[in-house]
Design brief:
The complex is a heterodimer. By secondary structure, chain A is mainly α. Chain A has 6 helices and no strands. The chains are: A mainly alpha, B mainly alpha.
């Protein structure tokens, strides 16, 4: 049962990922990307990582895809089509993709995965204490670094959005 | 997989006795899916009727009262009419996305419906991150609206879709944070456990002042999230025609329309579960008869739905800048302060427990 669901999800993900890079209409490729991401969320649900699945849905499907759709809506017209790249570029991209895929596949096959017979569901409480613990196996340092990064991104966004206004205000004061 | 299908045990056992396990599982899932689709359709049609009757009542009219007793079959007849209508579309529309858009809206609200606990036994998917799942799934619905607006190749539909996107993204923040405030008391995201905690007093009583503030913010943000008046800039009739679904006709229009009403029910149902004790009866008066829970749940949800309809026919529509000011300059800061107050109250054990 789980095996069939996995194959269905994998098929959805592969087909939509290929469609997403080969479609010549911009918004359609965004939607194919959304299907691929929902497929990833489905895989997480399948292996009982509910929290990660919900994060995938909220952050990627609900956040990033919506932002992408917004930017496409602003810059793109319904009758426009993306240009097809040159042959030389296509060959280069194909080589790069082949190298990347080869690297991934060799890593995955050389690693000795341990199969757990009983899957345990991770609760949010465990994730929370894991993120904030500074003992061995805790994630307090990456957590804090990411929060600083987010703060910097937020300040940067405000400055980019209001840059002109901030400058004129400073001129008035001095 | 960890799907707890605890709707009815006897059907479950009967199915497993006459079929092999794998087939029985699939049949059971299909049955539950069909059941939820039926709930979806009936609830949607009933709410449309209710909306029309309430609107008529507020405007001193009678409303639909000819088809069936007091007009109960009116929306059923409307649905039949919509089914038989021709599906039209614009010529230069992106047909694939145009046809796909209604399904995003309807599937996201159906998925959200699955985790709502109608009673202790009547919950299709009791996931341990219930509320987070609800927030995540409901954020997908807006994609359908954006796609529908863009793919119909119509200026007004596009403007409506953009407005809807801005509004939904902003107000999702308030919904999430006001629910988070209540999570501080329960300490769990699982909806069945949240209801269990409320056996010693509904959360709105347990959390007193900050809980009431959170509830008010939740109702405002929820009304905005479902694109209903006074936040219905998305389909402001005088400016945009019908907004993002201007170009939709027949059943595809009905999908958007039904999903809107189901979303309203979802907002009310989440509020019922989080703030008003879900299927628990007041003071435990019917605790010995558990199946009465579904009536308590629906009763509480209907009262909240009535409240939202009351909003709709009372307040005038906001401008887009007023809408965004309300969210970013008032609701969000109040919400953040409220979370800190709630954390203090929980920390100092100042919650009221009966």
């Amino acid at each position: 049962m789980e095996r069939y669901i996995f194959y269905i999800l994998a098929l959805i993900m592969i087909v939509s990922a290929i469609a997403s890079v080969s479609s010549r209409k911009m918004l359609r490729s965004v939607i194919y990307l959304l299907f691929a991401l929902v497929g990833v969320a489905g895989i997480f649900f399948l292996i009982d990582y509910n929290f990660l699945a919900a994060v995938e849905l909220t952050v990627y499907a609900g956040g990033i895809i919506v932002l992408m759709i917004f930017s496409v809506l602003l810059v793109h017209h319904i009758e426009m089509k993306l240009e097809v790249a040159k042959i030389s570029k296509r060959i280069l991209t194909a080589i790069a993709c082949a190298i990347g895929a080869g690297l991934f596949i060799t890593t995955i096959y050389s690693y000795d995965f341990k199969v757990e017979s009983i899957a345990t569901t991770t609760t949010t409480a465990e994730i929370g204490t894991g993120l904030l613990s500074y003992e061995a196996g805790g994630f307090i340092l990456p957590f804090e670094v990411i929060s600083v990064l987010l703060l910097a991104a937020m300040i940067g966004a405000i400055i980019i959005a209001k840059g002109r206004k901030l400058e004129t205000n400073n001129d008035d004061i001095t | 997989m960890n799907i707890s299908l605890n709707i009815t045990k006897s059907i479950h056992e009967w199915l497993f006795s006459i079929m092999p396990e794998g087939v029985a599982n699939i049949v059971e899932m299909a049955l539950i899916g069909l059941l939820y689709l039926a709930i979806f359709a009936i609830l949607g049609l009933f709410l449309v009727l209710l909306e029309r009757r309430v609107a008529a009542w507020f405007q001193l009219r009678i409303g639909p009262n000819r088809v069936g007793f007091q007009g109960v079959l009116q929306t059923m007849a409307d649905a039949l009419k919509l089914l038989s209508k021709e599906l039209t579309g614009t010529v230069k529309a992106d047909k694939f996305l145009y046809n796909l858009a209604p399904y995003f809206v309807i599937i996201s609200s159906l998925m959200a419906l699955a985790v709502i606990p109608f009673t202790k036994e009547f919950q299709a998917f009791d996931i341990n991150i219930g509320i987070f799942f609800l927030i995540g799934v409901s954020s997908i619905g807006v994609i359908g609206i954006l796609l529908g607006g863009w793919a119909s190749n119509n200026k007004f539909a596009l403007i409506g879709a953009m407005r809807s996107g801005v509004q939904t993204i902003s107000y999702e923040m308030s919904i999430g944070l006001s629910l988070l405030t209540m999570i501080l008391i329960t300490g769990s995201l699982q909806l069945s456990e949240i209801v269990e905690v409320q056996k010693s007093g509904w959360l709105i009583v347990q959390g007193h002042i900050p809980a009431i503030i959170a509830f008010m913010i939740y109702m405002i943000a929820g009304t905005a999230e479902t694109n209903r008046a006074p936040f219905d800039l998305v389909e402001a009739e005088s400016e945009l025609g019908a907004g993002f679904h201007t170009e939709y006709s027949g059943m595809k229009f009905a999908y958007f329309f039904l999903a809107e009403f189901i979303n309203m029910f979802l907002i009310a149902a989440i509020a019922t579960t989080i703030f008003f004790g879900g299927w628990l009866s007041p003071f435990g008066i019917t605790e010995s008869i558990p199946w009465l829970g579904v009536f308590w749940f629906l009763g509480k949800a209907l009262i909240l739905i009535f409240l939202m309809m009351w909003f709709r026919w009372t307040f005038p529509r906001l401008r887009i800048d007023q809408l965004l000011t309300l969210e970013w300059k008032y609701l969000l800061p109040i919400n953040l302060v409220n979370i800190v107050i709630m954390a203090l109250i929980v920390w100092l054990n100042l919650t009221i427990k009966i």
